[in-house]
Amino acid sequence: MPYGDVMNARIRSEERRAEIVRAALEVIAERGYRGASLAAVAERVGLTQQGLLHHFPTKEALLVAVLKERDQWDAVPDTQWRVDLLASLVEYNAMRPGIIQTFSALLGESVTEGHPARAYFTERYQRVRANMTAVLRTAYGDRLPNGLTPERTAPLLVAVMDGLQYQWLLDPESVDMPGAFRDFLALLGEE
């Protein structure tokens, strides 16, 4: 096969994989991971289940691709984060309810033993807590105004961010996620 044809086939395959991942995000957001079937994802993109398996050989492989895609959207070098910019992240998340819903559904399901995303979320939270510790240490040094260390405050900061997402998803009219997060930052000493 000529080189140009090989490249075109590769590009079409990558585009199809991206389309499948987007469809999987939608199906998982609607039904949760356990309720999402490969058949439902395949139907959404106009493939047979066998055709989908050509691109993703297992449901777990598709889940990993979905999680990696989500991480790409949120990829920001750790060195660019500052405490005051975290409010911007919360505002950004408020503009993408479908992504937040998918993330939250997967996170909730992943706490069960044997869930294929459990290791992913465990490692992700270790990394996020370490990043938030570094952000807090840069902003406040070894002690925050409330007397806690960055290591003790980081899990609280992450819990507030994720907890607000759940409350907002359940009742967006009553929960001002960005406003509530700014209120939390005020407790830390940010203005």
Break the fold down into its secondary structure elements and pairings.
Blueprint: H1 3-35, H2 38-44, H3 49-55, H4 59-73, H5 83-94, H6 97-110, H7 118-140, H8 150-170, H9 177-188
Tags for this model:
single chain; 191 residues
Can you put this structure into words, describing what you see?
The protein is mainly α. 75% of the residues lie in helices and 0% in strands. The protein contains nine helices and no strands. The chain has helices at 3-35, 38-44, 49-55, 59-73, 83-94, 97-110, 118-140, 150-170, 177-188. Helix 1 (3-35) crosses helix 2 and helix 7 (118-140) packs across helix 8. The radius of gyration is 20 Å and the shape is elongated. The relative contact order is 0.10. The mean pLDDT is 86.
Percent strand equals under 5%
Q: Roughly how many Å is the radius of gyration? A: 20 Å
State the end-to-end distance: 62 Å
> On the 0-100 scale, what is the average pLDDT?
86
In a nutshell, what does this entry contain?
By secondary structure, the protein is mainly α.
